[in-house]
Specification:
It is built from 13 helices and eleven strands. By secondary structure, it is α/β, with parallel strands linked by helices. The strands form two sheets. It has a seven-stranded mixed sheet, with helices on both faces. Helix 1 (11-26) packs across helix 7 (161-177), helix 2 crosses helix 4 (90-101) and helix 4 (90-101) packs parallel to helix 5.
Length: 327
C-alpha cells in the first residue's frame, strides 16, 4: 500500500456537479444496483464490508452509465448521425445498449483480439461491429477516423467528461443506499470510474477514503501518479483484462484522479485469482478479474479497517473465457 501525495484541485466540485446532473439524467434508464453485506469475506473481525453490485447491470458492467449519459448529452442531430467507439468488450456493450434505448446508430470497432462471444453480444444489441487488424489502440485510431469521416461522435471509454460523470453516478447511488462509508475500493484503469466516483465522494462525504486498486502487471495510472504526469509503462498480461491498457496523453481523467485518490494498493495475479475463487466458493458468483483486484486489495489491507464500513466496487461480471479457465 502506498499513499500518494496529490495536489488539491478545485475542479472536484465541477466534476461532482456533472455527476449529480448525470444521475438525474440517467435515472430510470440505467438500473440501480444493489449493495449487499459481504462481511463474512473479511479476514479481519469487526469490518462492515459491503459490495456495490455493478456486476448486475443489464450489460454486466458499470460502463452502461457513462455511455448512456454521453448519448443523452448529445443533441438530437448528433444522435441521428450516430456514435462510434472502440472497445474490448464492456464499453462496447454499454454503448450498444445505450444506443438501442435512445434509437441511436452505433458502430463499435473491435480488434481481432476481442473474443467472438463478446462481439456477438454487441451485435445482438443492434450495434454495427467492425473488426480491425492489430492491437486495441489500432481499433481506436480507426474508429476516430471513421467518426471524423462520417460526422459521427466518437465516444471514448474513459477520456470524456460526460462518460466520467456517468460512471460517477455509482457513488451517488452508493451514498443513498449506505450514507456512512469510511472507504471505497475501486479498480482503476484509465481513471474514468475512479475520477467520477471520487469527485462525488469528496463532495458529499469528504472523510471517505478513495482507494485505487491496480494489478502489479498493469499499473500505468499508479506509475503516472508517482511521476506527476501521464507516462507509458510496460504491461504484462493480467486477469484484470478490462482495466488493462495505457492512458491517453492529455486525458481529462488524470488530473481528477490526482485530486481524488487517497491511497493506491497494488496486487499480484495470484492475489487476484484467490479473491475471485473466494467469491465463487462463498457466493457462487463468477466475477471479472477487475473485481478480483479491488477485493484482493481490501483483503491485503483489511487490518486497517477494523470497526469501519468499507465498500468494494463489484464493477463487472463479463468474464473472458481464458480467465474462466484459470478459475
Amino acid at each position: 500500500m502506498e499513499a500518494l501525495i496529490k495536489p488539491q484541485d478545485d475542479r472536484i466540485e465541477a466534476v461532482a456537479s456533472s455527476v449529480i446532473a448525470a444521475g438525474d439524467r440517467i435515472r430510470g434508464v440505467v438500473t440501480q444496483t444493489r449493495v449487499v453485506d459481504i462481511s463474512d469475506l473479511a479476514p479481519t473481525s469487526g469490518v462492515r464490508l459491503y459490495a456495490k453490485l455493478e456486476s448486475e447491470q443489464e450489460t454486466g458492467s458499470f460502463k452502461l452509465r457513462g455511455a448512456t449519459n454521453k448519448i443523452l448529452c448529445l443533441s438530437s442531430a448528433e444522435r441521428e448521425r450516430g456514435v462510434v467507439t472502440a472497445s474490448n468488450g464492456n464499453h462496447g456493450l454499454g454503448l450498444a445498449l445505450a444506443a438501442q434505448k435512445t434509437s441511436t446508430l452505433a458502430e463499435v470497432f473491435c480488434s481481432q483480439l476481442v473474443a467472438p462471444e463478446r462481439v456477438a453480444r454487441i451485435e445482438d444489441l443492434g450495434a454495427i461491429v467492425t473488426r480491425t487488424d492489430g492491437q486495441p489502440l489500432d481499433a481506436e485510431k480507426t474508429a476516430r477516423i471513421r467518426a471524423s469521416q462520417t460526422g459521427r461522435t466518437f465516444i471514448s471509454p474513459y477520456n470524456d467528461p460526460d462518460v466520467m460523470a456517468g460512471q460517477g453516478t455509482v457513488a451517488v447511488e452508493l451514498l443513498e443506499q449506505l450514507p456512512s462509508v469510511d472507504a471505497v475500493f475501486i479498480t482503476c484503469g484509465g481513471g474514468g470510474l475512479i475520477g467520477g466516483m471520487g469527485a462525488y465522494l469528496k463532495h458529499a462525504s469528504p472523510a471517505t477514503e478513495v482507494v485505487s486498486c491496480q494489478p502489479q502487471n498493469s499499473r500505468v495510472m499508479y506509475e503516472s501518479l508517482k511521476a506527476g504526469h501521464i507516462i507509458e509503462f510496460p504491461e504484462q498480461k493480467t486477469l484484470s483484462d478490462s482495466s488493462a491498457g495505457g492512458i491517453e496523453e492529455g486525458s481529462v481523467t488524470f488530473p481528477v484522479a490526482q485530486a481524488v485518490i487517497n491511497t493506491t494498493v497494488l496486487v499480484t495475479e495470484d492475489e487476484i485469482l484467490q479473491a475471485m475463487r473466494l467469491v465463487r466458493k462463498e457466493r457462487g458468483w463468477l466475477i471479472e478479474g477487475a473485481i478480483g483486484v479491488a477485493l484482493a486489495a481490501f483483503l491485503k489491507t483489511s487490518a486497517r479497517y477494523a470497526g469501519k464500513t468499507v465498500v468494494v466496487l463489484f464493477c463487472g461480471s463479463n468474464v473472458s473465457e481464458w480467465v474462466k479457465q484459470e478459475l
